[in-house]
Amino acid sequence: MVVRVRNILLTVIFALMCAGSLFPVSLLFVNEQVTPKWYCTVFCLAALLLTYVAFSFSAKGKTATAQIIFPVILVLCIMQAAYGLLQYIHVLPGDGGFHITGSFDNPAGFAASLCAGLPVMFYSVLKNRTLQNRITIITATIIVAAILLSGSRSGMASMLAVCMVISLYEFPKNRKLKVILFSVVFLLFSGLYFLKKDSADGRLLIWRCSWEMIRDQPVFGHGCGGFKAGYMDYQAGYFEHHPDSKYAMLADNVNRPFNEYILLLTNYGFAGFVLFLAVCWFVWKSFLRCRHEPVVRLAGCGLLSVAVFAFFSYPLTYPFVWIMVILSIAIILYHAKYPVKIPVRILFTVKILLIPAILFFGWKTYQRMSNEMLWCKIARQSLSGRTERMLPEYERLRPVLSGNELFLYNYTAELNVTGHYDKSLQVGKACERLWADYDLQMLLADNYLQLQQYDEAERHYRKASQMCPVKFMPLYRLAKLYEERGNRVETLRWAELILGKRIKISSPTINAIRQEMKQLIEKDSNPASESRTDAESVNKPQSRQDNLSEQRTPEELLPP
User: Rounded distance, CA 452 to CA 351, Å?
Assistant: First the structure.
């Protein structure tokens, strides 16, 4: 009876954890799509561990099996896929201008989660070696259609890899099938590159600059968060030395390398990567010990799905992917049946110590969540016109959210708009140590400009321009800065650079800037003419209210 109650509770909590990692969206957080999912996952995980440890003192027997938890995962994946398909036919609204995002902020999170759960639908096929189950066929159709319609090339590649491996393993004697599969996969992989060629070429730039980061710190890397703290500086350095690069029109703000392995190398160097390979080798050897089990082959396909997706995107940003990775490894190690014996006293002591450790971790997580919710609340009030009143609240939150670069950027922007330029620089420099970012450089430059520290303002505007050469606003601000300082030669030089610059996407702001620069040159050629410009709105020093640029405003880092 106790074992049955335990298994029911564990199954229910596990189901809630999976659902919590897939569906929650809350306006109580700044990142309303991803952050709630992580907090739900962490709290459910704490409850799962506490339940397991508490019952382990009295209940003996097997825990919930694949026959129970796999249907739970499958149902949740179908619900997420259906959510996306309803968005595609405009029954439900999408997010961020994408056709399909599900309950995520972009198609990458949607496709990554479905691909991580994709192998589960093959469970009945692997176990019974039959496709007669109509539910399996319907499920496969829904999930596969959702991944394809999402437009995620990483998702398509991951799905193809899983389907190919399962087909080759389950039907090893069918040579025609092998030839057809390899031909189709080769053609589709080649086609995925040309599907969004500019995006693919942009990733080549990211990987090239990332390699420079790895070369500079090859052994132990740049540390946790090192990529985010340094990548844009390396991209700026690349364009400083290659101003005519073909990648100039493709470069933008980058927070991730679109490759989890490169991220690992950048942050933790080859020492971290070798440790990762050692873990992979151990899991692979364990898989070979028990690969005859259908559930183990399923777990292996789950890891393969995430591994392929990780080559081209950032699946580990999303909690459901982590759940599936850990679950797959746990299944493999459990069936490998290593002869590990832990003394009863040590096991009992570990269980006793785990309870307060889990409770403490849960409490600290709750405090962190409360602070992030408070930040969202005061940010909303600030955007409604109460900025000056909210500054003391920002300062009180600063010690506990000092590791959150978006909070520091938001605080820097609020100080800038209220005219506290020295304080804004102080917070902005703390943010710069965590986050190399185009928008942050523009904000720091404006602070220096308002304080009339023109050399520093120029340095940050130049750096912003090198980070994202496609942007017009840094060049425009430099031209206005030289005009304000009375340097006619440099003003005209930057004006001519702006007029000669290629436009990636036309906008009213860019048109106004070009018109003003054209009139500025004409005025210099004919001093007698004094014409008003059509771009008077961009003549003012940059601030949060006046900014018309491609630069993201602080509001765009917050909920609407």
Answer: 62
Count of other CB atoms within 10 angstroms of residue 495: 26
- Cα(540)–Cα(538) distance, rounded to whole angstroms? 6
- How far the first Cα of the chain sits from its last, in Å, is 51
Distance CA 111, CA 105 (A): 11
For residue 330, CA distances in Å to 124, 302, 367 come to: 20, 12, 30
User: pTM score, two decimals?
Assistant: 0.88
pLDDT along the chain (560 residues), means of 10: 81 94 94 95 95 79 69 92 93 81 92 91 63 69 90 88 77 64 66 62 88 95 94 94 86 90 96 96 94 88 94 94 95 89 85 93 95 95 90 94 94 94 96 94 95 94 94 93 89 90 87 90 68 44 41 45
CA distances from 247 to 60, 361, 411, 536, 552 (A): 61, 45, 33, 32, 22
Say which residue the tokens 């971790």 belong to. 361
Decide if 290 contacts 337 (C-beta within 8 A): yes
